[in-house]
Design a protein that fits this description.
With 529 residues, the chain is an alpha+beta fold. It folds into 2 domains: 270 residues, no CATH class; 145 residues, no CATH class. Helices cover 34% and strands 16% of the residues. The strands form 5 sheets. The protein has a 4-stranded antiparallel β-sheet. The longest helix is centred in the C-terminal third of the chain and has 33 residues.
């Protein structure tokens, strides 16, 4: 019998998890809701695997166990289904989750691709950039277990970067940004269960209404691939041509794991003994080419006037400057940014779940075309505020972040004024990325401290003005300190004390300019006649 990821026959427990007593375990997906020593987290050796697996499980629940309405959603949050109930729900789609065998295979091309040259299994790992195995030289020969091969395969298909001619990116483009609502107890004594984390990101079934109800409309590997050569009638695949649930099961890469040339021994990723080690796979270009406004429910999106609605991607470290767009809607010049659908549902439904606090977990690869620069992840606090005060709260938060951006931009400009004379070509090429990174990191604690104060009384004029003044003082002190720290770092022969003094004066003048005072509601002294 084929290895099946749903493991309804209880032959193959493969999903790596932590239980509440901090012990690791391997379970089938339908055992997520066991009440005896409940499951609280995933347990993989790689953050991208954890990020992919949590999306796999959300997609599985959204596909096979979606609530009919918000009342049913809330009931299941408080009273999780039994493992047997999940098992029964998953049974409908059992045939779509075979990893090997002669029939359709999970996340793999319908064609065996036997004519293609085999590639080492390391090429499935995004951070190897297809062939780099400097730090894992023995992995191609050693191989990995079928479970880790399945996880690596799903991770690649979900995050697929550009891979050369015809090697398509993921449904959300290469290295999408994913945001999930997660819960934690207010007393901090008992961690949230994995079920709670997953269920907070599942929407009502009506969100995915479609006339395309065949299994292959959801799981593309159940039928011949919708290849994307220019001569093909299926060159692009839109949300209207298949079931929108395919956003969780997108298959941009044509891949076939090789279960004919396997080995045995220790898995190269887990170190555990394994009778079957997958060492290679085959692939072919021109897989499914996803196009159009898919609006993945786990990603924030941006919309430029006259352009397409696009999923957002990490560009550098994720921090509070991304609050606008990830946690609340934002319009900046010609670009509108909106949080993921699951985040918006949380905010709009005002989920006041007793004993819990909520955060937004954001993660993803920062990609440079086909090469990953870094994996980033961060969390943001979420506040379940009533609609009567949320609008004012969000307006104030936007002002705080906009002011921070303005003072940071001026700090960098004044540092260049201090370092370089007018016309110095080095000014244009000066890399001040380290100033950016330090600014957002160093001021983050102060920002969230003020948000904690703001959430209690955003409509109180006195409290609001105190928060604005506090924030302005923080930014003013920080920018002056950073200017003084770096302005004199040029070579002694190139230092110009007069130029540095002028730049510092301009920095102080900008920090108290009228536009900044208006943004932060700071009283403007009347000009004497």
């Amino acid at each position: 019998m084929p290895l099946n990821l749903l493991d309804l026959d209880q032959r193959w427990s493969w999903l790596p998890v932590f239980r509440i007593d901090d012990t690791p375990d391997l379970i089938p997906p339908w055992q997520l809701t066991e009440t005896d020593n409940p499951v609280v987290a995933l347990d993989t050796p790689r953050p991208d695997f954890n990020g992919a697996l949590v999306q796999f499980l959300i997609g599985l629940l959204q596909t096979a166990f979606a609530p009919q309405d918000e009342d049913e959603w809330l009931e299941r949050f408080h009273y999780p289904p039994s493992p047997d109930a999940l098992k029964a729900a998953f049974a409908r789609y059992q045939d779509a989750f075979n990893l090997d065998g002669d029939g359709p295979r999970f996340m793999q091309d319908y064609d065996p691709l036997s004519a293609q040259k085999p590639l080492p299994i390391t090429a499935l790992l995004i951070d190897t950039a297809g062939s780099a195995t400097h730090f894992i030289k023995n992995l191609p020969q050693q191989g990995i277990s079928p479970a880790w091969a399945a996880i690596a395969l799903y991770t690649l298909q979900t995050n697929a970067p550009a891979g050369g001619v015809g090697h398509r990116t993921s449904l959300r483009g290469g290295g999408p940004l994913t945001t999930l609502v997660v819960a934690a107890p207010k007393d901090g004594k008992r961690p949230a269960t994995l079920w709670q984390t997953l269920w907070l990101n599942v929407l009502a079934a009506s969100h995915f209404n479609s006339e395309h109800q065949r299994p292959e409309d959801i799981f593309p590997w159940l039928a011949p691939t919708r290849t994307s050569e220019k001569s093909s009638k299926t060159e692009i695949t839109t949300r209207l041509q298949v079931n929108p649930l395919q956003m969780f099961w997108g298959m941009p890469r044509r891949i076939r794991l090789d279960f004919d040339s396997v080995g045995n021994g220790e898995c190269g990723l887990s170190g555990a003994p394994c009778e079957t080690l997958v060492r290679q796979y085959r692939c072919k270009n021109y897989g499914v080419n996803y196009n159009g406004a898919w609006l993945h429910t786990l990603s924030p999106h941006s919309h430029e006037t006259g352009g397409d609605i696009l999923p957002m991607h990490p560009k550098g470290a994720i921090n509070y400057r991304h609050w606008l767009g990830l946690v609340q809607k934002n319009t900046d010049k010609k670009i509108q940014r909106a949080p993921a659908a699951t985040t918006q549902r949380f905010l709009h439904e005002q989920l006041h779940l007793e004993g819990l606090r909520f955060r937004l977990w954001a993660f993803g690869y920062d990609m440079d075309n086909m090469k990953p620069r870094c994996w980033y992840e961060a969390t943001f606090p979420l506040y379940a505020l009533p609609e009567t005060t949320r609008g004012l709260f969000e307006a104030i938060v936007k002002n705080l972040i906009d002011a921070a951006g303005l003072l940071l931009g001026n700090l960098k400009s004044c540092l260049k004024d201090a370092w370089f004379s007018d016309g110095d070509k080095r000014r244009t090429g000066a890399d001040l990325g380290f100033i950016d990174a330090a600014f957002w990191s160093d001021t983050e604690n102060a920002f969230y401290r003020l948000l904690e104060q703001l959430k209690t009384a955003p409509g109180d004029d006195e409290s609001r003005q105190k928060i604005y003044l506090d924030w302005h003082g923080t930014l003013n002190r920080y920018t002056l300190e950073q200017f003084d720290r770096y302005a004199n770092t040029a070579q002694i022969a190139e230092q110009n004390p007069r130029r540095i003094a002028a730049a510092r004066k301009n920095l102080m003048r900008f920090n108290y300019k009228k536009d900044i005072k208006l943004l932060l509601d700071i009283p403007i002294k009347p000009v004497k006649a």
